[in-house]
Amino acid sequence: MKTISIRRPDDWHLHLRDGAVLEGVIGDTSRYFARAIIMPNLVPPVVTTNDAKAYRQRILAALPKGDRFEPLMTLYLTEHTDADDVEEGKASGLISAVKLYPAGATTNSHGGVRDLNKVMPVLERMAKIGLPLCVHGEVTTPEVDIFDREAVFIETVLDPLRLRLPELKVTMEHVTTSEGIDYIKSADANIAGTITTHHLIINRNAILVGGIRPHYYCLPVAKRESHRLALRAAATSGDPRFFLGTDSAPHVDPLKECSCGCAGVYTSLNTMSCLAHVFEQDDALDKLEAFVSLNGPAWYGLSPNEERITLARQEEPVQFPAKRQTGAGDITVFDPMFPLHWQVAGD
Ligand SMILES: NC(=O)N[C@@H](CC(=O)O)C(=O)O
Ligand SMILES: [Zn+2]
Ligand SMILES: [Zn+2]
């Protein structure tokens, strides 16, 4: 049987939500991942270091017994964020990054940033203390086509910001375009990109061909095939600037299967199996560890995990549950539309 052993992976972009959803989904992450960057777009958002401290406690309290998992907390940047609070959060070891949501760009982003000028003092402080800014990189301008919003963001927001503040470390989250990949590759320093599991597997046809399939809808929305191939090439290249951020984003089914469905794909449960499949297909299994276990910690200034996991390729397809049941309702699990053969030892 074909097997590979890698250091235990981390997830550098994860939504855990709160309450019954948090309790229902946390085990799907803590089973495979040692650490994760936790997104702060709760309702209300995680804005202050105190909010993050309390949310971290709720995450730890929801962990299945015996699981060891380190939530790496982030703050939701607003036009009222206090630079001193951010600095204290970093100094205390609690805060790993600050998240920029352009107001209106995605789920629970209405409290995000409208005018970057208003947050420059906070960004300047972050540059000074070496705290990364995680970015949802899409413009919200109504005239800009939704498939172009990432590329336009890079040109009109991200690049000007980085010219203004070159010392700021920026994580471009969930890169979905070849423009995003090229932009990161062309930079000298201080930029990296997370790539999701699902954007390595689906293109926009998955959402639209044969009927509207809401469980493949997320933001940034999946693009055409040429972009997916650019993401695959970057992820499987071993380039230290690219690493896994699943962006696993649970929404209970009634909120996705309706006339105005939420954006988000739930992938925590079968991500490692999907990724092993992708890397094997691209003859790059030897690069999987860099993507899921090495490049992320290096970017965030952390050591890679000492513990290891083994993945084994089974003859027969491995079955995963189609839905994760939670106290708030069922959440549909990402269906990669091909049989999965790779299994994490112990599953
Ligand atoms: N990715 C998504 O489609 N949704 C995320 C928000 C985000 O990461 O943009 C969510 O919170 O549901
Ligand atoms: Zn986002
Ligand atoms: Zn996200």
TrEMBL record:
Q: What class of enzyme is it?
A: hydrolase
Gene from which the chain derives: pyrC
On whether Acetylation is a keyword of this UniProt record, the answer is: no
- One GO cellular component term, please give it: cytosol
Q: How does it assemble?
A: Homodimer.
Catalytic reaction(s) noted: (S)-dihydroorotate + H2O = N-carbamoyl-L-aspartate + H(+)
Q: Where are the transmembrane segments?
A: none
Binding, Zn(2+) 2: K99, H136, H174
Q: Sorted alphabetically, which HAMAP family does this protein's record hold?
A: PyrC_classII
Name the residues that bind substrate: H15, L16, R17, N41, H136, L219, H251, A263
Function as written in the Swiss-Prot or TrEMBL entry:
Catalyzes the reversible cyclization of carbamoyl aspartate to dihydroorotate.
Q: Which residues form the Amidohydrolase-related domain?
A: 11-305
Q: Tell me the organism.
A: Rhizobium deserti
Q: Which keywords label this protein? A: Hydrolase, Metal-binding, Pyrimidine biosynthesis, Zinc
Active site (catalytic residues): D247
The GO terms this record gives for MF are:
dihydroorotase activity; zinc ion binding
Can you tell me which residues bind Zn(2+) 1?
Answer: H13, H15, K99, D247
Q: What is this protein called?
A: Dihydroorotase
> Which biological process, per GO, is one annotated for this protein?
'de novo' pyrimidine nucleobase biosynthetic process
